[in-house]
Amino acid sequence: MIKAAIVEDQKILRKSLKIVIENISDIEIVGTAENGEEAIALCERENLDVLLMDIQMPVMDGVKATEEIKKRWPNIKVIILTTFQDVTYVLNALNAGAEGYILKAVDPEFLVQGIKLVYHGGSLIPQQLAKEVFGQIELSNSNSDQDLSYMNHPYDLNHQEIKVLRCLTQGLSNRDISEKMYLSLGTVKNYVSTIYSKLNVKNRSSAIIKAMEESLIGDKKY
User: Domains in the chain, please, with CATH?
Assistant: First the structure.
């Protein structure tokens, strides 16, 4: 059973999320918190798998809390709960180590699927929100010569590595990628490690951010 917790400063939302998640899944909500400091204390008490983390909270916000939690408990997966008004903070949260983000008003079934995806090693980057978060970045890059960047293989990524990187941005787990690309799980893990090394990043979220910021995946087919 997945053990999760909800960090949200709105009491009604905390309660409603807990009820909905537990009613439609086997995910156990073992605790709730209303700010980042309480979230850290919760991590000290409970053996958590996943944290649903609000961004804007009193005392300590979600970005600072995520950074501290990932330093102390790197195995705890963090999903940022956000609104369209908060998307400017999402990049900071992902850079702090969060595995993904999702709208607070999302369909409960999708939220449960997202929790399970992240728990099993995937990254949760909904396309609708990604357009908002990375829109300005993509706009600034649209005037650059993307074809030239691909010809030069940015960061010395080969075609297979770019394919794997594209799969990462789609939120696929290593197992999903192995099935999609007809590769062994070990081969996929090696590709992912090589991608991290070439991009000089430490996790999936950072790799996804860099891929989107620098248009490393685009729509070019390989």
Answer: 3-126 (3.40.50.2300), 144-213 (1.10.10.10)
